[in-house]
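Entry 12.
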Amino acid sequence: MVASDSEAYDRRVAKALDALSVCVQQVRTAIDGLKAGSRDNVDAAIWHASAQAEYALFLIGLNLGDRNISDGFPKRHQAKLSEDLASGLQRVIDAITKTMEQIRSDITVDVYEDLLKATSVLISIQEKNVRYNR
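Predicted 3D structure (tokens):
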């Protein structure tokens, strides 16, 4: 049985929302690990959160690919981190939570770009965190 385009689209939205929920949960775990002083838990949680955010970004990109996008997809830029790790992680939670609300109503290039920015911040945090812990 072949799923219709609409069913495939809805399935990808559901999977993206699930991945983003796990991402937020992992970022919260990282924040808790920071408070407890458990750097290993922080590293693992940030890594898992980054993986989930990338997966959601991929799924949202697939759904956008089903549409005619004349300007193309937004490009990833290196995120600049000016705050402490906990504040940066909270910023990621806020951005992803907002993106999840937007995804529920419609997926647009702006939604993709917002998620791309949040994912870039999370990856920058991951790179900075790993660099400082070596």
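Annotation: Helices lie at 5-36, 39-65, 85-105, 109-133. The chain has four helices and no strands.
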